[in-house]
Automatic annotation (TrEMBL):
It catalyses: L-histidinol phosphate + 2-oxoglutarate = 3-(imidazol-4-yl)-2-oxopropyl phosphate + L-glutamate. The lineage of its organism: Eukaryota, Fungi, Fungi incertae sedis, Mucoromycota, Glomeromycotina. It comes from the Eukaryota. This is histidinol-phosphate transaminase. Transmembrane segments: none annotated. Keywords: Amino-acid biosynthesis, Aminotransferase, Histidine biosynthesis, Pyridoxal phosphate, Transferase. It comes from Glomus cerebriforme.
């Protein structure tokens, strides 16, 4: 039987901003199985082959099956500094040394840490540019930090920064400590112009950090001039670049996020994190994933995803009931408008199609109609050829 302590009242002791939180909801809360095209994971799987290529009679490569042999010593805490993974990242991402790298439990941990480091609850603010990734706001709310919004230029699905407006807000508003920019954007699939990011980084009215979330950076075409900004971290002490193994490396399940910045910022992040935040299991998989061979695997899977992306776009355009394709081609998903029977953009229809795909056909996509500039939109992760074929068929049927 519960013991009733009359002086205990849960609601009266919880921080008011926490009490006011609404649980973060995503499509996976409602639908968790079937063809999962809702969370921009890597539909082609992990970059780690099931068997080492040696077992296939070829040259040796690091694989999942070789890993299982190393899953021992779990009675010991993992390396608090994860030096081995950082050394591989230094090579791969061309970072000067490991002091420029922080590892977190997904980028989501990095977002929370950066807010906790720079923002005083109830006083400081972050600036975001909707439509954008939802966790910047969720973490700000958890930390009782205000959110200032300067929408992207959504006209014609451009989804670029309104730089002048951002500069104006920075000048007028006190206590903005962090600007979160997502490039390539989620849900926009568009890489932001480096020119506009440079203007913000160099603005003399701004005394805060600029975070560039590059979760989808490996999907950007090599010739695109707005690819990774890691190369700028030695130049700008106020720049933090976030990356993750959740997308191009197909390892969302291990939760490994990366922040790259000036060592002074990285030191603050290390001082703030829990001592052993990266588990030994995650660490082994991440280290293996970053071998030369597996980076080549990642690049080859990325090419397949890019090619499926192109095919998916060209087929989806021809389905009646599909409006414009918004945003760019810089990530592993597409953003498409759904029209009603009168050819008007329709949130209701988009939501019904989302539900019908999930409930009748086991295909889970993400409804994004309530985001700024995304009216009537579904965001669809590029699947395998088979998954895309089923998606196109069922989407045509739903819209017929
Ligand atoms: C833009 C963006 N940043 C970060 C994340 C989360 O990354 P992680 O899995 O490393 O926490 C996502 C996941 O969808 C994302 O879309």
């Amino acid at each position: 039987m519960a013991i009733n302590n009359k002086s205990f009242s849960l609601e009266s002791i919880v921080r008011p901003n926490i009490l006011a939180l609404k649980p973060y909801r995503c499509a996976r809360d409602d639908y968790s199985s079937g063809i999962l095209l809702d969370a921009n994971e890597n539909s082609f799987g992990m970059v780690l082959p099931d068997k080492s290529s040696k077992e296939n009679g070829e040259q040796e490569g690091e694989s999942l099956s070789s890993l299982t042999l190393k899953i021992e010593n779990l009675n010991r805490y993992p390396d608090p500094n994860q030096v081995n993974i950082k050394e591989r990242l230094v090579e791969f991402r061309k970072v000067p040394n490991i002091n420029y790298i922080f590892l977190g439990v997904g980028s989501d941990e990095c977002i929370d840490l950066i807010i906790r480091i720079f923002c005083i609850p109830g006083k400081d603010k972050i600036l975001i540019t909707p439509p954008t990734y939802g966790m910047y706001s969720v973490c700000a709310n958890i930390n009782d930090v205000n959110i200032i919004k300067v929408n992207l230029d959504v006209e014609d699905g451009k989804f670029q920064l309104k730089t002048d407006e951002i500069l104006k807000v920075i000048k007028e508003q006190e206590n903005i400590k962090i600007i979160f920019l997502c490039s390539p954007g989620n849900p926009t699939g568009t890489a932001l112009s480096h020119e506009s990011i440079k203007i913000i980084l160099e603005d003399e009215n701004y005394n805060g950090v600029v975070v560039i979330d590059e979760a989808y950076i490996d999907f950007v075409e090599e010739k695109n001039k707005n690819s990774s900004l890691v190369k700028w971290v030695t130049k700008y002490p106020n720049l933090i670049v976030m990356q993750t193994l959740s997308k191009s490396f197909g390892l969302a399940g291990i939760r490994l996020g990366i922040s790259i910045a000036n060592p002074n910022i990285i030191q603050l992040m290390n001082n703030t994190k829990a001592p052993y935040n990266i588990s030994a299991l995650t660490s082994q998989v991440a280290y293996t994933a970053l071998s030369e061979q597996n980076i080549l695997n990642m690049k080859s899977i990325k090419q397949q995803i890019r090619s499926e992306h192109t095919k998916l776009l060209s087929s989806i355009k021809n389905i009646s009931g599909i409006g414009k394709i918004l945003g760019g081609n810089d990530a592993n998903f597409i953003l498409v408008q759904i029209l009603d029977k009168n050819e008007n953009i329709s949130n209701d229809r988009a939501y019904n199609v989302y539900k019908e795909l999930a409930e009748n056909h086991g295909i889970v996509v993400r409804y994004r109609g309530n985001e700024i500039g995304c009216e009537g939109c579904l965001r669809i992760t590029v699947g395998t050829p088979k998954e895309n074929e089923i998606l196109l068929k069922k989407l045509s049927e739903s819209l017929a």
